[in-house]
Predict the structure of 2-dehydro-3-deoxygalactonokinase.
Amino acid sequence: MKQAGSHTQAVNPVNNAAAADANLQHAALIALDWGTTSLRAYLYDAAGDVLATRASTDGIMNLPRSAEQGGFDAAFEDACGAWLEQAPAVPVIAAGMVGSAQGWVEAPYVDAPANADALVAGIVRVKAACGATLHIVPGVLQRGDLPNVMRGEETQIFGALGQDTSAVDSGKRALIGLPGTHAKWAVVQAGRIERFHTFMTGEVFAALRQHTILGRTMVTPDRPDTGAFLRGVKIARDKGQAGMLATVFSARTLGLTGQLSREQQPDYLSGLLIGHELAGLEAVLTQQQNSLAGQHLRLIGNEALCERYRVALTQFGCTHAELVKHATERGLWRVATQAGLVNPAAQTAHAG
Amino acid sequence: MKQAGSHTQAVNPVNNAAAADANLQHAALIALDWGTTSLRAYLYDAAGDVLATRASTDGIMNLPRSAEQGGFDAAFEDACGAWLEQAPAVPVIAAGMVGSAQGWVEAPYVDAPANADALVAGIVRVKAACGATLHIVPGVLQRGDLPNVMRGEETQIFGALGQDTSAVDSGKRALIGLPGTHAKWAVVQAGRIERFHTFMTGEVFAALRQHTILGRTMVTPDRPDTGAFLRGVKIARDKGQAGMLATVFSARTLGLTGQLSREQQPDYLSGLLIGHELAGLEAVLTQQQNSLAGQHLRLIGNEALCERYRVALTQFGCTHAELVKHATERGLWRVATQAGLVNPAAQTAHAG
């Protein structure tokens, strides 16, 4: 459900006036993760450390007023106005749906395979009413019979790559998963997003639960039921030949036949869908002479959801799935650095 | 959308008072197809010909008043009261959700494999306030890791079998498809429902279209776009390895990249889902040393929807898919006959 209003709130204890004043002397970059339903703003020092964070519900489909009436400016001012007042020269970068056709300005997709240089070359600038220039990172498009697009995830992926140049930035092929509404799985090699796949797992789960007969018998359990979840994963893996349209009906029929309680049905359905996602991913990896089994892969996203995926991945022989934290703010910093918006080596230039 | 009220309407021109009076002298059976959102009543003569039909929106989840307040009696009286007043001794049979746990009385599922005798043995009776006894046909349950249930379709299947005893009632294995909200595919042999599968294709399509991002860019075309539909079927068949959770996103990305118009997107998505259903069916048939290719199969259901399936089936090598009409009323008649409620040979006994 869409929230009735939108408001900015501090999510970081350092983000009070006194601390912010002190921090702003060291401000080197403002970065925005601006999606459909939310806006997160990060203030960095010249070392790339986050000094302050602000979060609001001013996503591009949830602006405080319409785009024609300056909604983007209003949301930006609300999130970053106080910072910019004291540090007006700080560069600003943004990633996510803000660069879509429905965003502030469209930053056309760059084609996969895409490395950080390609993202930088695709940056589009927009001037805010307050005088600041936003540098908007483009999304990535993979062409084909089943085209794929991402906006925001490309920046998170480069954030995850930036963490460990030895394993992932090398020539070795790496797999990065981004569970969520539209889950992404990207194959990365030599610092490039080679190809990726989208699974509408999160959104389909919500639609099935809220708008089909399956939800009618479901009761949310007090705590997640890992047994029911794993049962769903295994059914999708071992008995999923008929496809998801067939297996999901079992959430109802196992209930009708007394084999699955109402409280178990949500986690069972979640396991079924994530199991079908991973089985589908395994099928396309197999075509690429690759496999989930034995992979050392990385997950980016909500911790509880990534934990579900980690558990499900073990059922596909993948026991090394590492959760990458702070991929978004690291990625924004990395792209800004690559674009020359900040120079991490010249900290003193910014510290005064 | 649920209709605000419920009302009974005549759908057959013979169903006016004068014609009904004349017909009722020959009445031999009342049969009800009583589902979740609708109730259809058929009046037969002793030859099994339908004399009159009535239809209402008084499905078991849409009764004129609650079940506790006599909602089932009220709906039954509304549909059949006029008939029963003049022919109170006419037997009554009913199939569908009226026999579910939420129905008038529960008629427990009979196990697959199930023939017409098994259905008859599972009939449960309930006495209506008006004095009539309803004979409620049970549904069929197939046990297993992915249990399957049907209620109403079993009667339609026997209706389709009754049509042609040479081809389908023989020992030859036959495949019958019932497209719809929860599409069913049944393997029938020697007059028995051997096994069946359920695909939530219709309900998932509606949920995706109405409650996910995919619907936002869709515009209903003036007429169905068979080209877009077939494109979806072929993608599911040839490029569907990643599964439906992945392929459906292409309804959006093909739009974003200018390869699929807004008007084409609904039929493309329909083709994708029906294509995944048939690919999944083909996978389970293969496990049973069977195949869609070369099948002479039958379809029961809405004509326009069955036509979609017929077109899609040709993409799987199945060019003989015959639409069976009036399967519901034929099936109800057949089960009633088998149960001894009517005796087609003794027409004169009922004609007076």
Q: What stands out?
A: Chain A has two domains: 8-167+328-351, 199-325.
